[in-house]
Amino acid sequence: MRTVIFDLDGTLADTSGDLIAAANACFRAMGAGDVLDPLRDAGTAFHGGRAMLRLGFARLGRAADEAAVDRHYDDLLAAYERAIDVHTVLYPGALEAVGALSEAGFRVGICTNKPEPLAELLTARLGVRDAFASLVGAGVLPRKPDAAPFVEAVRRAGGDPARALLVGDTETDFRTARAAGVPAVLVTFGPEGERVAALGPEAAIGHFDELPEVATRLLP
C-alpha cells in the first residue's frame, strides 16, 4: 500500500505562535519577560522546546546554562499543553491534500518529533486526527532523523515502507527520508522557505495543491 507520512510542525500546521508563547511563559515566570519574538524566532520554535530555551537564555547572557534548559523544559511543555491551539493553524490546502491522497488510495500518517501525547492532543483539537491512519511522536522510539519513527508510522498506517514517502519542511525530515531510503518532499512555505530545495529532495512544493500529483509521480 502506498503511504504518505507527514511531519507536523512547520509542515501540516504553523505551530510557532503557541510554541513561542509557551517559552515566553517560562521566561516570564523567571521575571525576564517575553524574551522571544513570535515572528523573528518562528524558525527556532520548529526545532523544539530546548532550542527555544537555549535561544532565550543566550539573550539573557546564559548561553551555556544547559542545567537551566533541563530544569525549565517540563515547565515549557506544561505551558504549551495548557494553550496548544490558541494561534496554531493548518497550512492552506493541507487537509484537502490529505483527503485527495486518501481518495486516491494512499495511506496517510504523521511522524513528528513533538512528544506523542501533545501531537495527539493538538491534532484532536484541530479536528484532523481522524484524517490520519497513524501518528508517531517522540517518546519510546528514537527521534528523527532516525528512520525508526517514520517506519513505525508507515507500519501503523497499514503501508509498506518500501512504497512510502515523507513530506517535511527541514533538513531533519530530509535526512529521515534518506535514512529510510524513501523519497523526500519538502515544503517551501515552512520556516526554512525556499532554502530546503538546495538539499536536493525528490520534490519541493510551494502549496499543498501540488502534493497529490507529486506523490503519484514518486510512488506510481
UniProtKB/TrEMBL annotation:
Pathway assignment reads: Organic acid metabolism; glycolate biosynthesis; glycolate from 2-phosphoglycolate: step 1/1
Q: Does the UniProt entry include the keyword Isomerase?
A: no
Q: Write out the catalysed reaction.
A: 2-phosphoglycolate + H2O = glycolate + phosphate
By its UniProt entry, which Pfam families does this protein fall under?
Hydrolase
Q: Which UniProt keywords apply?
A: Hydrolase
Q: What is its EC number?
A: 3.1.3.18
List the Gene Ontology MF annotations in alphabetical order: phosphoglycolate phosphatase activity
* GO terms for cellular component: cytosol
- GO annotation, biological process: DNA repair
Q: Which NCBIfam families match?
A: HAD-SF-IA-v1 (TIGR01549), HAD-SF-IA-v3 (TIGR01509)
Cite the PANTHER family for this sequence.
PHOSPHOGLYCOLATE PHOSPHATASE
- Say which family it is in: Belongs to the HAD-like hydrolase superfamily. CbbY/CbbZ/Gph/YieH family.
Protein name as it appears in the record: phosphoglycolate phosphatase
Gene source species: Rhodosalinus sediminis
